[in-house]
Design goal:
The chain has 18 helices and seven strands. It is of the alpha+beta class. Helix 9 runs antiparallel to helix 14, helix 10 packs antiparallel against helix 11 and helix 10 crosses helix 18. The longest helix is centred in the middle third of the chain and has 27 residues. The structure holds s-citryldethia Coenzyme A.
């Protein structure tokens, strides 16, 4: 295939044998151009082949842009560093949903609407009591979010823009409540209702850590830290769980079911489960002098061990979120008076060694957002089993924003990939008596 005229090419030419086809090249506002292969099968009788979608754009979007080589992440054009420094998470939610930063009045109205949807139907608490106490909170979250479609029938008609927005607000508002309930249930403490006079992240910390026996005082430094962690995790273009939400939504499934599908996908250790896996890995390494042994294992093709929290499909430079995460980690440990966290010492030394090692340098493997988040979340008081729950809580706005964008795209149709078939060709049935 060769582009007909260099960078300003309007089309690419595909030549197979004696035949050639011109495929349109589409340009975005920034980032790689795309070759439109929508008519390829009809024209050539062939599919393209790209397992893992390393070279495939699955959709057009205007929400989040990543430049993996430069380590750039923009939410609606705003650099993540500026949003994490200056705004709060609900401002980022507004930006991702509506496309612009809110005015003071719009922000106040959005905060008001989200705050007043933070309670869940009282029957949900009975739903929770069907689980074993040692259930993984992610299992509880997948189930309870999917169950929301059994309660909120007035916001499941995806054709109605009003209902789409109510469902979006409900999802953003109720995730902290459900996440806190999942945590309280596993530690055997009573559920804590949200309070309307607290901001989003303070409300979440209080629902997780307050007990009926005493007043809970929110630490503003810690609440700001968790709010910033939510901003960092809010959206990330077409990652595995967002693509799952889009594919589920393309069939017309209700938004709660789509978000539940996204949570299920995020749970995997190669994706959102990496924060839990990274902390467990640091614990397994146990001391700085054992780092070389694990670096060796990570490089050994016969060893399934990988450095969790390292590497990324898109970032071939430092994940910009990891830098902010590392800074937040030091802030939280400092505020809590944790002078030396042995796991942080191992993480810092592991990063230093890996970034000098040819194997990691050659493959452009850098720490990603999950490398330092576990140490921070553990310091905040969360058990490792809650780390991916917090990731899901934050990513809900990204999932629902991308879902809305897809539903509102006039060209939207059900996603249905094809395959390269390498199985048995057609053959006749053999009655069991005649099988050898
Ligand atoms: C998230 O997509 C997103 O945007 C995700 C996310 C988001 O915000 O939604 O950013 C969140 O999921 C971050 C990633 C969290 N996962 C981990 O930290 C798990 C450890 N990382 C790897 O499993 C891996 O790096 C992935 C899954 C993140 C990326 O996998 P790719 O793009 O398929 O890369 P690859 O597996 O093809 O790796 C390329 C090479 C291979 O070596 P070679 O075959 O070329 O010799 O790099 C090696 C891999 O073996 N490699 C690693 C490694 N990651 C890749 N080797 C050791 N340790 C690692 N962590």
């Amino acid at each position: 295939m060769d582009a007909s005229n260099g960078n300003s090419a309007k089309s690419a030419t595909l030549t197979i044998g004696e035949q050639s086809w011109d495929l349109p090249i589409l340009k975005g506002s920034i980032g790689p151009d795309v070759v439109d292969i929508g008519k390829l099968y009809g024209q050539t009788g062939m599919f393209t082949y790209d397992p893992g979608f390393t070279s495939t754009a699955s959709c057009e979007s205007s929400i989040t842009y990543i430049d993996g080589d430069e380590g750039i992440l923009l939410y609606r054009g705003y650099p993540i560093e500026q949003l994490a420094e200056s705004g709060d998470f609900l401002e980022t939610c507004y930006l991702l949903l509506y496309g612009e930063l809110p005015t003071a009045a719009q922000k106040a109205d959005f905060d008001y609407r989200v705050t007043r949807h933070t309670m869940v139907h009282e029957q949900m608490s009975r739903f929770f009591h069907g689980f074993r106490r040692d259930a993984h909170p992610m299992a509880v979250l997948v189930a309870s979010v999917g169950a929301l479609s059994a309660f909120y029938h007035d916001s499941t008609d995806i054709a109605d823009p009003q209902q789409r927005m109510i469902a979006s607000i409900r999802m953003i508002a109720k995730m902290p409540t459900l996440a806190a309930m999942a945590y309280k249930y596993t530690v055997g403490q009573p559920f804590v209702y949200p309070k309307n006079d607290l901001d989003y992240s303070s409300n979440f910390l209080r629902m997780c850590f307050s007990v009926p026996c005493e007043e809970y005082k929110v630490n503003p430094i810690l609440s700001r830290a968790i709010d910033r962690i939510f901003i960092l995790h809010a959206d990330h273009e077409q990652n595995a769980s967002t693509s799952t939400v889009r594919l589920a939504g393309s069939s017309g499934a209700n938004p709660f079911a789509c978000i539940a599908a996204g949570i299920a996908c995020l749970w995997g250790p190669a994706h959102g489960g990496a924060n839990e896996a990274a902390l467990k890995m640091l614990g397994e390494i146990g001391s700085v002098d054992r780092i070389p042994e694990y670096i060796k294992r990570a490089k050994d093709k016969n060893d399934p061990f990988r450095l969790m929290g390292f590497g990324h499909r898109v970032y071939k430079n430092y994940d910009p979120r990891a830098k902010i995460m590392q800074k937040t980690c030091h802030e939280v440990l400092g505020e809590l008076g944790i002078k030396d966290d042995p796991l942080l010492d191992i993480a810092v030394e592991l990063e230093r060694i890996a970034l000098q090692d040819e194997y990691f340098v050659e493959r452009k493997l850098y720490p990603n957002i999950d490398f330092y988040s576990g140490i921070t979340l553990r310091a905040l008081g969360f058990p490792t089993s809650m780390f991916t729950v917090l990731f899901a809580l934050a990513r809900t706005v990204g999932w629902i924003g991308q879902w809305k964008e897809m539903i509102e795209d006039p060209g939207q149709r059900i996603g249905r990939p094809r395959q390269l078939y390498t199985g048995a060709t057609s053959r006749d049935y053999i009655p069991i008596a005649r099988r050898k």
